[in-house]
Amino acid sequence: MTGSLRRALPTAPDGSLPARHRAMQHASHRWVEVAGADVLVVDPDAEQPELRDAMAGHGVHLTWVSSTTDALVAYGRTEPRTVVVAVGTPGLAPVDFVTAIRRHGAPYVIASGDSLTDPAAGVLLVAGACAWLPRPYAAADLWDVLATSPYATEGHGRVVVGPLELDAAAYRVAFAGRRLPDLPLKEFELLRALMLRCPDVVSDADLLAALWGTDAGTHGTRTIAMHVTRLRTRLGGVAAVRRVRGRGYALTVED
Description:
Helix content is 42%, strand content 22%. It has helices spanning 5-8, 19-35, 49-57, 68-78, 94-103, 119-127, 139-147, 185-197, 204-212, 221-235; strands spanning 37-42, 60-65, 82-86, 108-113, 131-134, 158-161, 164-167, 172-175, 178-179, 202-203, 239-244, 248-253.
């Protein structure tokens, strides 16, 4: 799990993550679902939570489906730039699936399986797969393949606006190279959401989704306003958050 959020966080004596850091990890998944690089994994085996967590630390969101039939739906819904396809996946033959998605775009296709000597692996590579990944998946192996793909994913865990830099994996905010005091989780999430759209206005609805995900309906604009007030104070003048009445909030970073 090199470079993952889990590696950057301290663990309890039993090896588990403290409650606050588990919340940070869940926040990481929400961020990448909204703004991260999306990788579609088409594999009949059960999803690997540790792989999902490690890639979230890199700003990469995994969508995992167990059949090529479901994968066609997921491909149309998420429009991923990278697709991992395991040989032997049920549904439409994997080679036909790869041929179909390449008719409707130019995704970076990665074939996967137990052995590269499997004849089915060669068929996928001929059909348009550009790389090979052994199963079961290791986060370091997947990251190495993604890092050399035409679609860079490295920057999704890190957001930079002028001299202001936010690193989601390290849970770090810096201004002109100087690390700022750690922000509480919700202010950190709020700042990242604003930086991702800077200098555009982020609507209240989008901020609610970024901060609370599926629980957004239990919170309102007053709660956002409270966190904005706190964030303004904690930023200490290095950046300003302005309210655009009826629309949302926008971030301005000092040069």
